[in-house]
Amino acid sequence: MIKFLISLFVSISVFSQSNPLKQPQNIKLFADYLFCEKDYLRAAEEYLSLDESYLSDTIIYKIAKCFSVIGEFEKSLYYFKNIPSSSFFFHNSKREIGKIYYLKEDEASLEHIIADKNNSINDLLKLKFALKLSKNQAADIENLLSYDDEDFTTLKKFYYQRKNPDYKSELTAGILSAIIPGSGKIYTEEHSDGVTAFILTGIFSYLAYDNLKHEHKFRGYLFTGIAAGFYLGNIYGSVASAQIFNAKVDFNFLESLSEFLTNRNYFVKEYEFCK
Amino acid sequence: MFSFLIVASSVAQTDWQRWEKSEPNYQKEHSFSQRDYSYSDNSFSYIVSKTLINAYWFLISDVDGDNCPFHPSCSSFFVQSVEETNLLQGTLMFFDRFTRDSNPVGREEHYPVYKNYRFYDPPTLYALDKNKINFIPPKRVIE
Does the model's ipTM exceed the 0.85 cut? Predict the structure, then answer.
């Protein structure tokens, strides 16, 4: 019995040592599979379980990419920074780092990698351009307007949009509503609110006038107060409406900028690892 | 082994309640506007406006029903506006809100939606403080 148990124990331990699933090449194959299935967290874990001697540039790049996709930016930065300058992935890793700094809105670090002459400066400059635009600091990037390629042309359009936004003047909206109730709201493109304000102010003003004319003093003063409330409230609301309109312009600008950057993948090249 | 199986199967059988016919509720969940009658500020303008609105809630709104299409409701908007600004500005904000409330056209295309299926229109948007304006696009659901 003891012999049987010993032999069983030995055979199990030998088998477990030679488990093919735990062999490095199979771990790598499994991690590659997970990577291609976009199961990035588990793919990174599998790659990291490999011995250090198996961590080629490609694998380090893939680990960094996995962490970048799932939003683990600090870990991602660590691995992207570990890619040597001799590597095929070096320049793209810098773009990936730039993308992370853009998403973290870390302007100083972005400037720092731009200052490094080894990096592919143009794509990083585009990110800096976009970051300044998103922070509404268009004046700081006038020196970048001389660059010329397809992306810069689009970014310049964003620049001019930022510099001359289609804002509505709060003062104009207020004055218009003071002259004709509701016209300030129409100016800020709140057409139906403008018409409603005009009707409400008109009705209550007429009621006030009619009641005062017929010596119904209480009702006359009551409707006068309500009409004045709607009149003044509309002037106030038109100013507020212009502010909200301008906030909407900024919001739409940032949405379009973000859409452009997403479509251009933040100027990062994607490799076809899963062909 | 036999006794082990008996014990294991008796422990595993934890659902002793009989299965019965259930009465599912197919009504859509509806959360009514919260009525908070308490006073949270000592300022004169707040006390005046809150007293007015408490009286309106108690005597009219609770009897009439929860009908305002906006969140916060117009009455709550008034109180919050006065709390946010002052009595005069809050009153102007309320008249402006009442104008928007009287306009039935294109609300769906204009306002985000609060979780209680009302149009979300908070007083912070109208306090004339640009830093407080948080633009939310129409139709987005606010949790």
Answer: no
